[in-house]
Amino acid sequence: MTQEPTPEQNPKDESLRDSARELAEKAKELADKTEDFLEDAAGKIKESDAYKKAGEILKKAEVYVENARDELEKSGIKEKLKSLADKLGESAEGLIEKARVAGKEIADKFAEKENKEGTGSPAEEDKG
Q1: Domain boundary pick from 56, 75, 94
Q2: pLDDT of amino acid 128
Q3: How many domains does the chain have?
Q4: Is pLDDT of 56 > 70?
Q5: Is 119 strand, coil or helix?
Q6: 126 occurs within a structural domain
Q7: Residue 109: which domain range?
Q8: Are 65 and 25 part of one and the same domain?
Q9: Which of 22, 81, 105, 124 could be stapled to 120 by a disulfide with Cβ–Cβ 3.0 to 4.6 Å?
Q10: Could you tell me which residues come within 8 angstroms of residue 118 by beta carbon, excluding any fewer than 6 positions away?
Q11: 66 and 92 assigned to the same domain
Q12: Are 127 and 121 in contact, with CB atoms under 8 Å apart?
């Protein structure tokens, strides 16, 4: 009986391993070149006028926002809004109380009118 060669002894398998190694090396080289290209491109972008202007604009925007926030804090807007909310709440409570009193007066007048006209409803009068 002849014995089959083991995978380590098979020339086809070794050729495949060599091809795989070569492919891996080429992929690594390509990745290295891509990394270098991206680093160069990033460096060029950072040195460009547009990038510098964008940085200046962002700094100005940041300063503007900080100043606006400081002005709002100094103006006491938070306290003013809280005071307004409190006043509106008190006003609403007063209006609710007035509406309750007016509703009770209307109900009392209606009941009084009903008592003057008769105690029964028209439906009860039809029965009698």
Answers
A1: 75
A2: 46
A3: 2
A4: yes
A5: coil
A6: no
A7: 78-117
A8: yes
A9: 124
A10: 125
A11: no
A12: no
